[in-house]
Amino acid sequence: MRNRGATVIIENGRIALIKRTKPYRTYFVFPGGGIESGETPEEAAIRETYEELGVNVQIQRLLKKLELNGTQYFFLANIVSGTFGSGTGEEYNHTSVKRGTYEPMWIEIDHLPLIEVRPKEIVDILLSL
What we know:
This protein has helices at residues 41-53, 90-93, 120-128; strands at residues 4-11, 14-22, 25-29, 32-34, 55-67, 71-82, 101-108, 117-118. Strands 1, 2, 3, 4, 5, 6, 7 and 8 form an 8-stranded mixed β-sheet that branches. The protein is α+β, with helices and mostly antiparallel strands. It starts with a strand and ends with a helix. The chain has one domain: Nucleoside Triphosphate Pyrophosphohydrolase (Alpha-Beta Complex), CATH 3.90.79. The chain has 3 helices and 8 strands; from the N terminus they run ββββαββαββα.
């Protein structure tokens, strides 16, 4: 179990997600990853979002803290610079069939109930806003 920091980025009625495609399954996740030693959850969320999406973000507030395979922190954030989709994290450099693919994309908020987004608790919050 590892604690994680993640961002929830909403722009023009769309949300930034990462499409994960593995053998026999496809699902979507919020940009983020493990909190490294000495990092705050916010710092991890900012770093991971840059690595995965290629954008710098400003944290607005904590949206939700979940206990799910460790503590996961989800922060509402805004893009302040960078080019969406230009991430260079290890997800893009160390690919394998088992690990699957990572594809940053914008998804209309109205489409969230039609796809598998993990964790579902965050989708439920977004749909109630």
